[in-house]
């Protein structure tokens, strides 16, 4: 079994991990100087103010951060497209940025660090102890693998992302915990606590989004979030030459909501107004972003956002991505409350299963996949046949 995490130090980028030149990050994109002052939204304050700030940021950026505690982060912070969710504190909102930090989300710092530590221990285990879980079978409820292959459309050359990952089903926890590894000792217990806390946070956020859209607070419950929660735990070891490879190529997430713990090492970048901006880590923060289904159900009012992962040469990075999935046969279409004569539906109805297939067919390309479901497609694609 060849995993990047099986080797303590990598002195060169193997050929299979070298991306085509047009897919590599520009040198200036690996060092992003952009800084802005982010306002704070306190979830314990007036609910209508919280809803307004979330909706404005969703329209402008489609991303926000959630933090468990606020210490001294009222100063200049990178990236104008995220909220922070913490335990206390508030400052004036920076309206012109349409973004915010949010406090009082209720996820304990010990819950986050507990699972992150256990996941890091898993990747550090000897290769023979990880071997029983190694698989490329996407249907398995728990597996470890190295990267996935990107295949160039022109010369069909295959390149790998610079990452190992765990992919697992984690909620409802009682259904899947028997499939999780017994080592390290803290893995199962810490994952159970983390998965439950993230599920509650996601339910809170989509409830606020529902209210902001003028929908019933329970709109996203049931089949739209009943497909379980899939988690990817990504391990990006130090890369000897970050300019040659990628952790993940640009993509938008499929479902309504993704909750990410990225730790204290940079790597996540989001596309905003045509440029890549680094989402610098904030201690104890979650990054929450809206996916394709949210854009479609809101009839384009809120946006899915392209993001990617770059590598670095100095430190390993671990990210924990929790994806709240619809049921495969759930019907997806613009909410009736958001459609009118002035705002006709922009997307046709479909089953989530159909979207999954289209997403795979076009290798997660944002415009190509949305084109397949648009009633009024992007002009660059021409009319639908």
UniProtKB/TrEMBL annotation:
Keywords: Iron, Metal-binding, Oxidoreductase. Pfam families: 2OG-FeII_Oxy (PF03171), DIOX_N (PF14226). InterPro entries: DIOX_N, IPNS-like_FE2OG_OXY, IPNS-like_sf, Oxoglu/Fe-dep_dioxygenase_dom, Plant_2OG-oxidoreductases. Gene3D superfamilies: B-lactam Antibiotic, Isopenicillin N Synthase, Chain. Residues 227-326 form the Fe2OG dioxygenase domain. GO terms for molecular function: metal ion binding; oxidoreductase activity. The keyword Metal-binding applies. Belongs to the iron/ascorbate-dependent oxidoreductase family. This is Fe2OG dioxygenase domain-containing protein.
